[in-house]
Amino acid sequence: MSQTLTGIGASSGIAIAKAFRLETPDLTVEKTTIEDVSSEEEKLDSALAASKEELEKIKEKTKNELGEEHAEIFSAHLLVLSDPEFVDAIRGKVKDDKVNAAFAVKEVSDMFVSMFENMDNEYMKERAADIRDVSKRVLAHVLGVKMVSLAEIDEEVVIIADDLTPSDTAQLNGEFVKGFATDIGGRTSHSAIMARSMEIPAVVGTKEVTTSADFDTMMIVDGIDGTVIVDPTDEEIAAYEMKQDEFAEKKKEWAKLVDEATESKDGHHVELAANIGTPNDLEGVLNNGSEGIGLYRTEFLYMGRDELPTEEEQFSAYKKVVEDMEGKPVVIRTLDIGGDKELPYLDLPKEMNPFLGFRAIRLCLEKDEMFRTQLRALLRASAFGNLKIMFPMIATLDEFRQAKAMLSEEKEKLKEGGTEVSDEIEVGIMVEIPSTAVMANTFAKEVDFFSIGTNDLIQYTMAADRMNEQVSYLYQPYNPAILRLVKSVIDAAHQEGKWAGMCGEMAGDEVAIPLLLGLGLDEFSMSATSVLPARSQIAQLTKEETEQVAERALNMQTSDDVKALVEETFIDK
Ligand code: PEP
Ligand code: MG
Description:
573 residues, Glucose Oxidase, domain 1, 3 domains, 23 helices
């Protein structure tokens, strides 16, 4: 019998396919003394051979699908496997110390990893990560544990996992991965956000999808309503295929608005922009009629690799985006690493509260050279289009001033060296920390614009982790507390003749849109796939009526009251 799970719809659309279970294998190792050395040696040899064969296959596949450069990491892994020092040390342990092969692999790899990690040379330090990865693969073979890799998927599947990290998500191949469902996570976790830009239907926070389904179980993922059906009946499959067709029809209707301006019924114009993670998302932006890019999350350029991107690499990514947008505004956010976005090669200490920790601008101001490299790349790219720079996680005016001063210094240096830099770059901040929202009138005198980052602003205001489905009931975009903060930020910007946008997920939310229009938001930046539905919605609203509703909402008592008011006035009509 089928089973229906309820979660949070993270990316709309419907996927019907069998499950592919992504899990972190249990590679715990116990030390045992062995009698039969040769059988342990055989186990080791076949694990080494199987790992080699697997890596060669993955390398070939990656090279064909993603190019030589991406395949290099697997060449490095193969190199470790053929290194006699490494392999002989493992063999020696089994033979001389008479320990089980798994323990020998673990002990030798730990030793090599710590040796490489302690070297001064950056290149050598990175080899530690290769050794760790290869050893895991060999160990899995010795232990007979199945290691699954997203890169190996070559048939249509729905991924089920406890959680997906943003770097897992970045590896998903949309051709085969039809959808995903996770046990944990919220609508604003970065894997959910990425699923939306990749147009992969997703449901997060189901709490039990990994215990309810296994490899090859048939699944329906309904990202519109946030439900997952495990092992559906034929009737359920037929019904969802119909829902899939209806969704495709709706998309066709929205597509007619692609070249239209965004205007309310009474002629008020607002700008609808898109959020992107990489230049690869540009196609979606252009196909969905965005009027600009309101948030380019540059951290993805730093992820899924072993070292910092060079200035040249960054420059070409930023230049491509501003050029392809042909003069439309492009707001590029400086590195916002931390929280759920990790960079293992920075070797940052584990923190108790990563969302409140050493992240984003805090890290950049400290890692001066890393930050300046990014600023130079941005400044150089500014000569090729309409580029704006935005600093994330600003909590104090002092942080903004420091960041801005570094930007000005790099600009002067570039200009002195004869490099062309635009003189019209607007420099703004994300308003995502309550202290900054409260002090918006002070900030407004010094910044060129605000972009309200509600994903974080809500979690910090309500003290509710955006990744934790247990407290997702507190994640309340329509709570009057949030609306009052948003209003004061917009008013503060307007007071100083500046513009205010929003790039948190709230900007694309059907219930929030009328309220934000009524509060006077100038720019709404959202997942590219939400742009056309938002344009269609705004065309049916009048600014005047939304203002009246927003005014009433600000004085209501609860989030539910506000939601009911908006729904009865604008949505269920
Ligand atoms: C936000 O916090 O609202 C935001 C847009 O930034 P991110 O989701 O990347 O933290
Ligand atoms: Mg944020």
